[in-house]
Batch of 4 targets.
Target 1
Amino acid sequence: MAKEKSEKQMVSVEDRTMCEATQQMLTKARRDGVILDLDRGYDMKPCPIGAESACCKHCYMGPCRINPRDPYKKVGVCGATIDTIMARNFARNVAAGSASHNDHGRHILELFRGIIDGKIKDFSIDDVQKLENVAKSIGIDVEGKEVKEVATELCDELEKTFSNVDGEMPFTKRAPKATQELWRKEGVMPRGAMLEIMEMMSRTHIGCDQDYNNLMKQITRTALADGWGGSMVATELSDIMFGTPSPTVAEVNMGVLKEDHVNVIVHGHEPAMFEGMLAAVNDSFFIEEAKAKGAKGINLVGMCCSGAEMMSRHGVPHAGNFGSTEAIIVTGAVDAMVVDIQCIKQGVAAVAKCYDTCMITTNPRAKIEGATHIEFDDHDPRKCTDEVLTKAIARYATRKMPIEIPKQVQKGVHGFTHEYIEYMLGGTFRGSYSPLNDNIINGRIRGVAGVVGCTNPKVKQDSVHVALVKELIKNDVLVLQTGCSQIALAKAGLLVPEAAPLAGPGLAEVCETVGMPPVLGLGSCVDNTRILIAASAMVSAGGLGNSIADLPVAGCAPEWMSEKALAIGHYFVTSGVYTVFGVGFPSIKGTKFHDLMFDGLEKQGYGKWGVAKDPIEIAQMMIAHIDKKRKQLGIDKARERTLVDMSDRRELAS
Ligand code: XCC
Ligand code: SF4
């Protein structure tokens, strides 16, 4: 790749990312004349009309462009108004995001079915307790039944998540009654995901649904079919097959690569291939092969979401989030980059070519031009994994590139789940959410925030995540995390109990008593559904209202970029959570569609959307919402008393 700009002309690496390892690799890439996403993102000037969702290309009478500064002046050739155009664009984003998670969930369900049928032999049911709990949660009677019988019934029932053409999606039963009633009243209760996504695509065709209010109902149904559908199926069945995580110390950042080992990175979203790789790297045959070529062993590490799952379940080291997947190749130390689906930048393959890294795709749904494709088959995992390892070892043996591995490694505690939160705060014998609710009611914990989602080269990598989470915990808000955001905070050193002093006095006291970090890592993006279940459990534990919308909670994706993030955001909003997005939002302020999203939905009994760029401003918006909910619940005064108590005690102590 040609060197296009001298280093002087380029923006400083410190402005592109706060991750020091990524800074070091970006510097090296520039020196090597290789262009990374972090620089492409800076150079790309996004289309100002598209950025505000003021264009439509749903038919070839257009594409039609509306002036975002004067949105009601013109309509499209077909007559579509700006509200129709924005609603349809958002609808298709949500449909794509929901489709991704449902496709993932359906694959996991097929794997589960294969295990039950005995056709898949390399995986098994690992967590029978969780199997029974999940089955019971949707009304399956498990008493006196064999494991296989329960599994079959659960599998048949969950199949409906995808294939139902009427009725209600099975996991919606796990939402609070009042939340379910709202969905029924509004006509947004999801049926089957395939139907909802198909209907969403059809309704957004030219000349179909042209009322943004009516479109919103199907958008909501399509998003709920993600959170209470495919994503939840993926998380729950993965726990049943591969084990429910519990807190595990794991290492994060590029320093987990080892110069004297064969380094294999797995980057993607479905855990099956990664689980297969983990089995293969522990095979003594390959360890001996690697040693015969002069390596000390094979080092398997993860990136992005399947990496976050493997870290939670097995403590597998994690090399970095979405913003570092090209940069890490620049180390020269990656012998194989093995990918499956979602969030794999095509640029990773181009960078891999520059550094002689084996770039291997494994999923028939996601090939990349120029990459080697070695297909992963659930029925015969070793066929793929062994070929991958053979290639990786061969690349190690013929390494030609100079190697430079950043030193940064941070230890953190990962692998929290809604089950573990219950146990951690309630104890083995009286496991319940009541202690969490009590601490919220008495005000030590002001509220709970979910901070999740991607990194985006439009903003300095990790910086908004870290500043936002620090501000939230300082204000006694307990933070739950998933995905690339969790990795950002892990790199910043906040996923350890020792971070408790960074929290406000109330939250710090709870963390110190329990021995937990003020920031709890829950895993990958499909594991956002753990937050939905935790919120439902908080409602049923009592004292905090009747629906998720009553809870003093808020959500945020401060550096979001993907359509999946929009689908997740909308299922949180319509499950009752105030959800703020950073970076920007594809809608125009002052339009009817925007007002519906950012205000009207709340009046209908849901949560609502918010948008801001500055982390402190985002934190203040979330805290103001939490305080509003505390006031509505009548628990605002308790917090003032508790905090006075604590400062009194502190003064006495000093
Ligand atoms: Fe992708 Fe899931 Fe976003 Fe990260 S957080 S960039 S969606 S890998 Ni899920
Ligand atoms: Fe233009 Fe309407 Fe066609 Fe969209 S559907 S491109 S607004 S004519």
Note: The pocket of iron/sulfur cluster (ligand 2) is lined by residues 56-59, 61-64, 76-78, 80, 85, 206 (CB under 6 Å).
Target 2
Amino acid sequence: MKAVAQDSLLGEVVFDAAQIASAVERLAAEIKRDYAGEPIMLVGVLKGAIAFYADLMRALGEHPLTLDFVVVSSYGSGREGGKGDVRLLKDLDQKPAGKNVLLVEDIVDEGLTLDYLLNNLRSREPRSLRACALMDKPFHRVVPVTIDYIGLTAPDAFLVGYGLDYQEGFRNLPYICKLKRHPQS
Ligand code: PRP
């Protein structure tokens, strides 16, 4: 098997594991306080949210919650790296009607993905609907979206690690860093 020198693509670390853990703890504390023991349907947006979702879920400790996931399309007709047309590739397993749905995203960039999901879920009459993002990257917003819980503000760069990928690689990094030699980095 041919070895690929993936680490040569990795640039400056933007958020290390301790900074991420601290943001996750703060978000979990805010969520626990706001929901005050009310059960939450925690909806992860795969694949990017996988690391954040797993850590947030555990940081929520004994708060009652159920787990569910959606998968949305990754590519569209928007700007380079943008989403353009967003489509649901995998829907929820549970019905969201009457539930306190909390969407969990790794990053909000143009806002198209979150806007699509909020509209989609709102039409199915959840009891409440909020969004939590580890990172807000507000520089190229195409649609305004309300993010109820924001962990960190991302720089305007192509980021990988802690769930974020470049060509499906780097999701397993325990930190978030810039990617070298990319048009957007
Ligand atoms: C990323 C991220 C968000 C979305 C945000 O997912 O996880 O879901 O982009 O982008 P937007 O605000 O510009 O719409 P991606 O489509 O890269 O797929 P992935 O989750 O499988 O990495």
Note: Residues 111 and 144 are 7 Å apart (CA to CA).
Target 3
Amino acid sequence: MAASNPLDALSKPTVWHEFSPLANASNAVNLGQGFPNWDPAPFVVTSMVDSVQTPGTSTNQYCRPNCHLPLANALADEYNGRPSWSHLNVDPMTNVMSSLGCTQVMYCAFRALLQPGDEVVLLEPAFDIYGSQVILMGGVPKFVSLKTDLTAPPTSNDVFTFDFDALEASISEKTRVLVLNTPHNPTGKMFSREELERISSIVSNYPNLVVFSDEVYEHIVFDPEGSPHISFATLPNMFERTLTMSSAGKTFSTTGWKVGWAIGPDDLIKKMTDLQQWVNFSSPSVTQDTIARCLKRAREPYEEFPTFYDWLAADYKKRRGVLEAALTSAGISPISPQGGFFICADTSRLTFPDSVYEEESLSAPSPMPRDWALARYMTHTNPKVAVIPPSPFYSPENVDQAKNYVRFAFCKTDDLLEEAQLRLATIDPTGDLEKK
Ligand code: PMP
């Protein structure tokens, strides 16, 4: 009998296929989708023009399969310039690989490392692409849930905590990869040094285990003193087993350019490069060249801030404040994120008609989970604000953990956030969404 194609299990509509059309059809304010609805900063746009137009450079031709050299140099400078990375001495020739967004970087890494049957430990809620990529490779995702305590103080770091015993129990000789994500999508949790140290002591027992650290929201952080961004690779002895992954999409509001990279030890970077050269040979030179320019410019003063990164974090913090205030006054308690551009909010007070559970849904699990039904009602009826249910970020056994919260994106312009604020303000104080 022919082996089944793992793609078959994945060829079905997802939450994204369902909620974007529903939002459009309902004229909802769309706080579902996780990309900025504004143009990139002027220096980002002019960097692209300069990259295309600079005569005599190779930006319009193929680049090396590992990384366009100017980007590799800019990334090595960037990481070596961070105090926490300075002891690692990232070599642009051997420690940097770039591909089409963090997503394809991760694909190359899984493809290069996994053999059918290898296990990959994912912390859920987990960005949905991780588990699907593992399945595509014939790997086996092993899910460990963050503990969720909605009665904890209202920050994502307090509400979502590690169950280290469960993490330890999930790792074995069969585990090839552990995926970390900080700042974390969807919760906004930032992993603390203590948490990362405990993880490092667990993984140290498994010489073949590689850690992928997805850090795409690394520059969108709200309390750099109390809850700083820490790269797992910078912990003692962890660089040699870690692929630090990031991308330009969130930092420069260029999610469509798909420039992502991995920083890691020679052997792992070489494997990923060997793979890329047989898939797409290299990534587009011009977007990489542009991001190389942007990485340099981002360290300079911007809009009265010492750097572009400081401005970016402050701008997002302001947007977080607007949405948190709107949610609080609507009786939907925000779980304040320490990083990233999503707010998860406690919806346990809200009620809505049972008939929503019977609606035809493109992609909901059966039976439809509460968060899914509520997200549909909030999108199509009241308050007509589109949100994303977090259950797709959980494995089927654990979707119940998602039932009392939904995810709002605040990477949205002032007019959209203000309209959302007005609509959320119409929610009846009892929390009954049927009352207008
Ligand atoms: N990782 C996380 C945690 C994300 O939220 C996203 C985008 N939503 C990505 C990776 C994808 O990054 P890219 O667009 O660079 O492929």
Note: Residues 121 and 302 are 40 Å apart (CA to CA).
Target 4
Amino acid sequence: MESDIERAGRLILASKYVVGLTGAGVSVESGIRPFRGPGGLWTEYGEPPMDGYQRFLANPKEYWEERFIKRSGYRKQLYETFEVAKPNPAHYALAELEELGVLRYLITQNVDNLHRAAGSKKVAEIHGNFSKLRCIQCGSRYGREEISLETIPPHCPRCGGIIKGDGVMFGEPIPSDILRICEEETSKSDCMLLVGTSAFVYPAAGFPQEVKRRGGALIEVDPYETGLTPFCDVSLRGKAGEILPQLVDYIKAKLQPGESST
Ligand code: OAD
């Protein structure tokens, strides 16, 4: 009988435009805690206030002091882990699927930069990237070292707008450049590979629903059931770092030598 990995691999190879959607679960095996479920940060600390961005706008100086200077609580823990985390086999498997021409684009909700570190190039970081800063007025992004913190909040060298971390806060609109890419890629996709996301936070949670509504396939990789499980064609239960390399091996074995799916 066909295994779930084989079914998932067959679906992927039969699809024209596979897009990945990853969440915190893909980085758990890199030592980064998820938000929800067992071991989750919000499970331990509770969800942060939903109006984080409005609080930042009301007092950007305090935001800078708390985020980048004093740092305490879950944020301290999370940022310290980001700084040392390395990609795990799941990140490398997704980068290899891109290299093979099988995965056309990757939308990640993670800010940890690990997909890029593993070699993925076509990546949309819908919630930003912890290693960058962003101007809230013109949207320019900067490396941390490019912006002087002599006065806080720092201001944009291009337009004078206030600069914050690139990570998207609760209550903050998704930057329009990234949102456009995510929507375009979703609209082209006839198969979405969901890895390690509870699919709880919108707009990202809406992308798989959109693919399904247009008759596309959904494959999920997660040790536990998620809100999207009932809509998935195949649910691969287990750790992403163990399942995805098996999926890549199956796909590579089916592709002819030297062949990519493009
Ligand atoms: P969640 O923490 O909500 O969900 C993580 C998912 O990963 C769960 O379904 C877990 O079962 C699964 N998981 C745990 N270990 C895994 C493993 N080894 N392999 C595969 N899956 C595993 O994380 P997200 O869905 O990413 O937003 O959360 C979405 C957004 O909520 C985040 O981007 C963040 C948060 O608030 C912002 O920071 C703006």
Note: The pocket of 2'-O-acetyl adenosine-5-diphosphoribose is lined by residues 23-25, 28-29, 34-37, 40, 109, 127, 168, 196-198, 200-201, 221-224, 226, 239-240 (CB under 6 Å).
